[in-house]
């Protein structure tokens, strides 16, 4: 009988770990899809020749706006 309860406890731990990992993955995928939608809406009317420069600029702007303060977090400036 005690073995049954130990087995169930271990089963609950495994299920909790799997469900936690799945929830984390879903949250991350929502953030990534929101970021991609923002980038698409910002770069919709950019000509193909300027797309790389505009993509880098928009991505940097989104990252800085999400960080809250907009300051560089490290590294040397050029």
Explain this structure.
- The structure is a single chain.
- This protein has 78 residues and is mostly helical.
- It is built from two helices and no strands.
- It is rod-shaped and about 70 Å long.
- The chain starts with a helix and ends in an 11-residue tail after the last helix.
- The mean pLDDT is 82.
Distance between the termini: 68 Å
Question: Helix segment count?
Answer: 2
DSSP summary, beta strand count: 0
Order of helices and strands: HH
Cα-based radius of gyration, to the nearest Å: 22 Å
| Percentage of β-strand residues | under 5%
- What about the largest sheet? none
Quickly give the structural class. Answer: mainly alpha
**What's the helical proportion of residues?**
over 70%
